[in-house]
Amino acid sequence: MRLKRTVYIGELNKSFIGKEVTVSGWVLRRRDHGGVIFIDLRDRSDLLQVVFEEGIDPKVHEIADEIKIEYVISVKGKIRRRPLGMENPKISTGEIELVAEEVEILNTSKIPPFSLDEDISEVSEALRLKYRYLEMRSLGGLKPFIFRHKINQTIREFLDKRGFLEIETPFLTKSTPEGARDYLVPSRLYPGRFYALPQSPQLFKQILMVGGVDRYYQIVRCFRDEDLRADRQPEFTQLDLEMSFIEEKDIMEVVEELLSYLFEKILGKTLSTPFSKISYQEALRDYGTDRPDIRFDLKLREISSLAENTSFQVFRNALKQGGVVKGMKVSSIFSRRELEELTQISQELGAKGLAWIRYQKGASSFQERWSSPIVKFFEPSLLEKLEEVFDLNEESATLFFIADKEEVANFVLSELRKHLAQRLNLISENTFSFLWIVDFPLLEWDEKEERLVSVHHPFTHPKEEDLELLEREPLKVRSRAYDIVLNGVEIGGGSIRIHKRELQERIFKLLNISPLEAEEKFGFLLTALEYGAPPHGGIALGLDRLIMLMLGKKSIREVIAFPKTQKAQCLLTGAPSEVKVEQILELHLLPGWERKAMVR
RNA sequence: GGGGCUGUAGCUCAGCAAGGUUAGAGCGCCUGCCUGUCACGCAGGAGGCCGCGGGUUCAAGUCCCGUCAGCCCCGCCA
Q1: Alpha carbon distance A433, A439 (integer Å)
Q2: What is the ipTM of this complex?
Q3: A115 found inside a domain
Q4: Tell me, in Å, how far CA of A90 is from C1' of B56?
Q5: Are residues A443 and A413 in the same domain?
Q6: For B71, which residue's CA is nearest its C1'?
Q7: Strand-strand pairing, A235-244 and A184-186
Q8: Strand-strand pairing, A443-446 and A300-302
Q9: Structural domain includes residue A579
Q10: Is the domain of A250 the same as that of A156?
Q11: For all residues of chain A together, what is the average pLDDT?
């Protein structure tokens, strides 16, 4: 390399006029006029017009003639004010240009498979992933990653000030039952044995608390071998933290302060704290989901007792079968066609149908206010009650009802709620509504496995006041867990942990984990709890999701440098790939390894 | 494991409902011209396994079946 860069393009401004600089980067565009050639040169920071004039040096002009798009070049020359009327207000360096005196082609480039000049987001994602480096190189292509870098730096700065220690935990660790499917790593030295990649550093951070660390955090990769979604990748990053000698509100405060600091410093947005907090039960009752988007209202209302008094068989049958009737008011009216479409959406989500009532206040008589195929099943007094329950005081509105098992009604209405909010433009863009969900049940019944399983994880502390219910009515026990939801997306969850062996053993027993298995899988934790484990708790925030939301992206793939496709492939490298037979043999993965393992 | 959308030139897409001439457009690419452009312009040109396989038909980009890939979702994700 003959010409060494002296300055980033982004640093250039009018004060450089007359000065000699060398810039290095990639050719975005060239405009060839024969005698004069313009090249828009781009580096990580910005874009600059370089001018090659024939008169200056014929050799330089000859080289400039060969330069094509995406060639890597260094150019030395003087910064000059652009001639009057030739400024380009569209680019930040539009008042100046670089007059090339020397040029060096550092590398050529094939014609890129897609234009790096236009809006890259229009290009199919598969192609962008295969050529991720080209997408990154395009104008603004690094933005999400620069943003992410700032987030990481700011998190570290904040937590360091608060006395948190960043401590790394192993990736090659132990497979644990419960939770997601593990990624396994075969052990070469121990035939038939496997490491597992961590689903989270949960147990290690608890052990760190026993170790007296007191305040721990880590920006850490986690691995879960489950199916992918727009907000789920097999490897993802958590901001994991844990504190000793604290209660729920201490964790919530730290998180609220951290998020406020991040939003203020990086987005210039002031969050109002404390964040809203509702119980799991309220969330389900009012929104039908444990991660409601509260940027808009549209609360659900249960009208089971009212529905019982109608003569509408659909409602009555649902109730007879132990179901509920829940509804939602929308301050708009819909065409028949739209209502049919909404019904179809509801059915695709699992409802048998969607009942609706159109309400128009201005109608001449009470009866005419209500129009719906089902309104004939309602006595006037019931309609009056509906008016009350749904606080009908607008000019026109539509009520939607689902009659079904509670879970179905909740699920369908919560999805319908999101759908309608979007469709009716009820979501104000660029707002960030945080919400804590608390008082989760500790346990739930798993139909398939026919046993109790943890809602959060087996190390979650039950509420003190519910402890006596543990064995008697385990499903009524609430936990000391909390989730944090941003705009309807779960961005984190945590809990106060069990710090006494005896309670931990009781929980394992409830989960149908035998003492033997508990010892085998979690013995190291149980032992640690016996040596003076302090009360502790923590939280993990899904960093990919948080950054996605902060940037207004629809998928975490947009904020991960090299993400996997929905079928868990890396289009850049081709992983997962086949390996040599030798490697498989060495890892004892061929049939028969069990026997070898037993012989050992 | 299941449901939905998509797959046509290097890229973005039209054509498919209702099968029928040589499969089009914009951008990009190639050659030439051009000393003030900035998505430069002008003239000319190249470029297609219509994802893949099978079927129906005189005839398939278009209809049917299967399959693969990308995306969205359900299940799954303590």
Answers
A1: 20
A2: 0.94
A3: no
A4: 58
A5: no
A6: A566
A7: unpaired
A8: unpaired
A9: no
A10: yes
A11: 94
Mean predicted confidence (pLDDT) in A271-279: 97
- What are the φ/ψ torsions at residue A572 (nearest 5 degrees)? -75, -50
Residue A273 and residue A393 in one domain: no
Q: What pLDDT, on a 0 to 100 scale, did the predictor assign at position A600?
A: 47
pLDDT tens string A192-203 = 999 999 999 999
Between CA A387 and C1' B14 the distance (Å) reads 51
Closest nt to A86 (CA→C1')? Answer: B36
Tell me, yes or no, whether A495 lies in a domain: yes
Query: What total number of domains does chain A contain?
Result: 3
**Measured in angstroms, what separates residue A116's CA from nucleotide B63's C1'?**
40
pLDDT in tens, A507-526: 999 999 999 999 999 999 99
CATH of the domain at A489: 3.30.930.10
What pLDDT shows up at residue A599? 53
With 0.90 as the threshold, say if the pTM is over it.
yes
Domain that holds residue A361: 296-427
Return positions of chain B under 7 A from a protein CB: 1, 3, 10-13, 27-30, 33-41, 69-78
Separation of A382 CA and B15 C1' (Å): 56
Tell whether the torsion through CA atoms of A100, A106, A111 and A112 is positive or negative. negative
Nearest nucleic acid nucleotide to A540, CA to C1' distance: B78
Shortest CA–C1' contact from A230: which nucleotide? B72
Residues A376 and A307 in one domain: yes
Residue A107 DSSP SS3: strand
Residue A186 has a CB neighbour count (10 Å cut-off) of: 17
Structure tokens at A355: 């009942």
